[in-house]
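If it is no trouble, might I ask you for a protein's amino acid sequence along with its backbone structure tokens?
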Amino acid sequence: MRSIVSGAGQDPRAELRTPFDSTTGGVMTVEAGAITGELELVTRPTKDGNSIEARVAYAGARDLYTVAGSPVRAPSTEAHEEEHQRMLKRLTTPGSIEEAGELPVDLEL
């Protein structure tokens, strides 16, 4: 896993981007179901500043997909980078294993 955070140290309301490799089960999205492979996590605070939106894209692609469980409540927009890192850790931790294999990961509690 690469730990590059584009936008780090900037305005906490700015968009943050980090490339990562999905787990075998992938990341569950609202629009496309589970997606796997080389992905990019893109986060930004919601307009009201109370939550952080999380979307993923295939590496090099423009289409963004909402991660299931997004947006996630955040204590403040200043906590954006911390929340981004927490989301990245969750999305790169393998999901539960069932008979059919590893389940996709999401941000739902």
